[in-house]
Amino acid sequence: MAWGYESSFTIEHIDGLKRKISCKDCKYYMSDDKSCSKRPLYLPEDGYNSWKGCKFFELDENVTHIDEKKAQLLRIKNSKSIKNDKPDKLKPAAIIGYRVGDKIKHIKFGEGEIIAKRNNMVTVKFTVGHKKKRYVRTEEKTLDLGICLKNGLISKA
Fold first, then answer.
1. Is 101 left (phi over 0), alpha (psi -120 to 50) or beta?
2. How open is the CA angle 100-105-110, to the nearest 5 degrees?
C-alpha cells in the first residue's frame, strides 16, 4: 500500500498480501529481530532472494498463500536441478585421447605436436613461418586441453 503522494512516497509491506517467496516465509526466520536462526544473517529488507541460495530454507506451513508458494518453490528447485544435471566439464575420454607425439591443429597457432602432457595441460611445439620464404621457427605454447576442446580451438591433425 502506498500513501503520501503529495511530497514523498512510502511503501508499506503487508505480509498477508505477498504472494512471492521471501526469507520471511522460512520456518527459521525470526520476525522479532528480522534474522535467520540457522545462518548469521540480518534481513531488514525483503527482496534480495537470498532464500534461493540457502541450503536451510524450508517453507513455513503457516504462511499466507501456501499453495502458490509451494508451487513457486517446486519450480525453483526443478530449474536448479536441471541446471545442475548439465555437465560443465568434458568427459575424460576426450582429454585422454590426446597423447605426447600427437599432431594437432589449433585455430590460431596452426599445426603443432604435443611434446609434454600433465593432467589437462599440454605443451605443444608449433611451427611458425613460411617454408617457401625460408623463415621457419618453432614456438612452444602451454594450453589447457579441456578448455581448448570445449571451445573447439584444437583438433587432431
1. left
2. 115
Q: How far apart are CA 21 and CA 28, in angstroms?
A: 14
Query: Which is more confidently placed, 79 or 26?
Result: 26
- Cα–Cα distance, 19 to 36 (Å, whole number): 21
The type of residue at 63 is: V
pLDDT tens sequence across 23-47:
888 888 888 888 888 877 777 665 5
Give whole-number Cα distances, 84 to 51, 62, 79, 81, in Å.
18, 31, 9, 5
* Grid cell locating 156: 587432431
Confidence (pTM): 0.42
Q: Which residues pair with 26 in a beta bridge?
A: 59
In the chain, the domains with their CATH numbers are 2-85 (no CATH), 92-156 (2.40.10)
| CA neighbours closer than 13 Å in the CB half-sphere of residue 152 | 0
Contacts of 84 (CB under 8 A, 6+ apart): none
Check pLDDT > 80 for residue 4.
no
